[in-house]
User: Fold these one by one.
Assistant:
Number 1:
Amino acid sequence: MISEEQVRHVASLARLGLTEDEIREMGGQLAAILDSIEKIRQLDLADTPPTANPLNLSNVLRPDEPRPGLPREEALSPAPDPVDDLFAVPRID
Amino acid sequence: MDDLLNLTAHGLSEKIEAGEVSVREAAEVANARVEEVDGDLNSFVTPTPELALERARRVDERLRNGGVKPWEVVPIAVKDVLSTRGVRTTCGSKILEHFTPLYDASALANFGEEPVVVGKSNMDEFAMGSSTENSAYGPTRNPWDLNRVPGGSSGGSAAAVAAGEGWWALGTDTGGSVRQPAALCGIVGLKPTYGRVSRYGLISFGSSLDCIGPMTRDVKDSALLLQAIAGHDPRDSTSANVEIPDYLAGLEGGVEGLRVGVVTELMDERIDAGVREVTSRVAGELEAAGAEVGEVSLPHAYYALEAYYIIAPAEVSSNLARFDGVRYGLRVQADGVHEMYRKTREAGFGAEAKRRIMLGTYALSSGYYDAYYAQAQKVRTKIIEDFREAFSRYDVLVSPTSPSVAFEIGAKTDDPLAMYLQDICAVPASLAGVPAISIPGGLSDSLPVGVQLMGDHFTEPMLLRAARAAERAADFEFSPRP
């Protein structure tokens, strides 16, 4: 079981609001999922390297050349609260 | 005009090329079909009949001058996770209910300047689910049986193709989301090699897993649509800089001498007997057609689902962080930025998205990272090694696509774990990044069964050739339903 306190902590890390009902449900559901996943922890993989990309690509670079981007007005058009050519947010607390 | 609905995409393309039908007529037929059946099916979040007609008219104009690719003339349904310039793109989520992208996904741009899009198809929210019930826009229904799910997460695309709402569709596959709905709706679904198709403009779910793939009536259509969308893209650093072969050239070459291995771990009692039966029959038919068929083991396939359900949610928790009410999408106003984030995400995300964000955040959090995420990444290495070993002895691996046929709407919505089990056959190929295709192999309980064929990285020409032979042997007749 994952405690309600743990659920609240993880939700706060994720900046995710949850209702009291969701918090109660989530503990049990996450615990059930994690239980089902438990068996991979029993594999001894100390000497196995991790895989992040199935093609083993890393550090793919392209020339750092200026290219046209979206015009500012267009880039701001989907924003919920654009102000003075900028993305606006509420007070940083 | 109705007989156009029975054509494959390549069949329609040939008719248009021959001047027997215009693109506009084809678009009209697709639009009429959407009008006729989508009230029952809900394949589309946003049908785009006017856009389809307008673009069809322009493709018709260009046809007079030549230089139009054979695929460009065929109307297409596009999963609502792919960005479409000027057309609302919701990802099946309330958080993007009013979001209109500023550019087309590269896969669509490769398809053509003006894809004749019949609509944006329904999906599980942010592609998380196996039934298309996790959509903020209502579930999609299976054209074979309206009380059943079409699979997911590309369930809208699968239902659209099965119903003839357009001739083909684009889906996306992170852990089976093209292949499983294709299986449940009796169509062909291809997950290409990871990186074969650019992810630019695909709204990310699991960045190391996401693949865009064709959902089609037959394997030849699949090859044609892959040809249309594949290619390296400097705007996606994970896209593969590998030459694009001609996917149609050797398609009819047959399977003489091809080494085919049936995967032992994916043929056990977790799979319904009727599904195993169809899979074995298709393997037998490949043998009869000249393939060498044996059994092959992927020992770590038993751990694939578990590894997937750590890695994918971990990537989700990171990818969905961008939905914060600042640059696009929903904002719930609040006093203070953190409260705004929390309230926006609480109101905007559905239950499964929240569950996966929580699971992923937990697995990545301090004290659990090594036990869960790092361990899952190591299991991923073992699965890749299993595939490498298997491909040293076999060209193609065969398994069921899904452990069951289409299930009833509501049957698994209260049990996330039961839903996750739908992916057991699909996730090994996802984790290894290898191409995999589902073809309709036959029926069980009067519902379609998908058979999966997997190949090594970038062997799509061989995989498609094997799938073409399997499809011919299975002799599964496509016709639009209901």
Note: DSSP finds three helices and two strands in chain A.
Number 2:
Amino acid sequence: MSQVQGSGVGLWIAAIKRDKKARIGAIILGVFLFIAIFGPWLVEDPDALVGVPLQPPSSAHWLGTTGQGQDVLAQVVVGTRVSLTIGFCVGIGVVLIGALVGITAGYLGGRVDAFLSLLFNVFLVIPGLPLAIVIAAYLPSGPFTLAVVLIVTGWAWNARVLRAQTLTQRKRDFVAAALVAGESKFRIVTREILPTMTSLLVAQVIGSTVYAIGAQVGLEYLGLGDVSAFTWGTNLYWAQNDSALLTGAWWTFVPTGLCVALVAFGLTMLNSGFDEITNPRLQLERAWRKYLTRNKTEATHSTPVVITND
Amino acid sequence: MTKPVLSIQNLSVDYVTDDGPVRAIDNVSLDVMPGEILGVAGESGSGKTTLAKAIMRILQPPAVISGGRVLFEDKDLLQLDEEGLRRLRWTRMSMVFQSAMDALNPVISIGEQIVDTMKVHTDFNSSQARDRAVHLLEMVGIPGDRIDSHAHQLSGGMRQRVGIALALCLEPSLVILDEPTTALDVVVEKEILGEIKELQNKLGFSVMFITHDLERMLQVSDRVAVFYAARLAEIGPAKGLRDNPQHPYTQGLLKAFPSIAPGARTPESIPGSPPSLLSPPSGCRFHPRCSQVVDACSQTRPIRTDLGPGHAAECHLLSQETGAAT
């Protein structure tokens, strides 16, 4: 059977292989992960002054030089590691906190729910990015600060969604059955309810990561990060600082901007394949749609009629 | 001779899987006559519900209808477009699902749901529709003053009755009952079936009645179709089928039901279990479990043999006998 079976990592890999969009996303992300892990050893020191400032791309410097005379390619490559690390840490962090708070509130209900709901509702009405700017301005600058700031301002929405999802699940018969079977609250939440939300959680991680990368680049661009570190955001900060737009030095900001866009694109593509894992019905529909296309029949709301002569 | 309301001719339905289509209804033909109650019996997975939903064209993906014709009031349902089907559904043919009681909207009163259904398809105004809704509810045994009740205020049996009232509200000529009483206890079941029969007498619609309770079906139906592994094994008048079943599967099925009559024989089960439709047995699909198997059974698919008015079966034993007789 080519249908997805079993569990764990194999399942996710199979889902990626099957879906064209997920494959494209996985390849893009794979390239960036490779750059993040091995890139810094493959390029020269991004801090070194290697040539005349603001040189356009040439054979010596593939992406030209910055306003300080540093190599743009080296900066983009080295910046990938920090930017992606913060992005994924924040993406996973906000979903973990969101899940903990949201599912606890949804499952326990009552006063706990009232308190936790109040908490995340307060966080929801606080505008995220301005708060991030304020916090980032007061804390010592650096990647860790940025991650903390983004997690604090980003978890509430996930908590709210997961609370709602938990509410719809906790009254289902399978939860009642687990309760009767003597399962503990913890086990019911982690083994019965949580698996029904896998695709939602994955979608949240991916969405939050895209947000985190964007927000982090934005904060750093405003000078709220550590401007002496090498990240995509500081690359843009320095490009702006060196009047790249005024002088028409597009090579100092376009590569970094493209990287941000590509990572976000790759993550979004990847997400599309994951829905099928927790929704087996979609897998069946895929075979069905293929069959209809092969027999030149439109997928209609009513049961389609496909007359074949075999 | 009267024309059938519904004439299913060589209908096949496939479920598309990654490994190719699996046939869930295999070349089935049967007619439903005006004012007739046709029972459809068979084990779980034999294709009863698939047949019913295929007629309504409401099978969900991954199903496709892969052959045949379904003639209903001179229209081929397999040729109709969405709009044509929409017009026909519920006005001319309706269905009561096994879980009809769960199909009621929890936040809209039952009366409103019946009124809504009528207003979609007719030009009744609200008060006319409401009067008729009260009338319908009383017809299925629910006091008319419950019209403003919500689903949660009614018992399972009452909700199922609302489902039946909904199915009857546009006076369709064919009502498909897909195990309408399986989720109910036997007392309520008997009441509801009695009411359906009474209503059917009064209003004259045709019924296709699906259940796995053969005994009950033989009491209620005029004719009975027995399905086995996606094929029609035998179809015939209820009385004839009960007293003189021709297909070994029908015989086995009848023997498998206990009787409450004093001194009744002990039920006997049919050995084995129904085959997987992914790899059905060759020839006659029943042959691995059949007690009267002959050589031809595993070789070729038995052809349909007419055994009398409205009575036919697909079995090699029968086709040989008639072959010898003529």
Note: The CA atoms of residues 92 and 172 of chain B lie 4 Å apart.
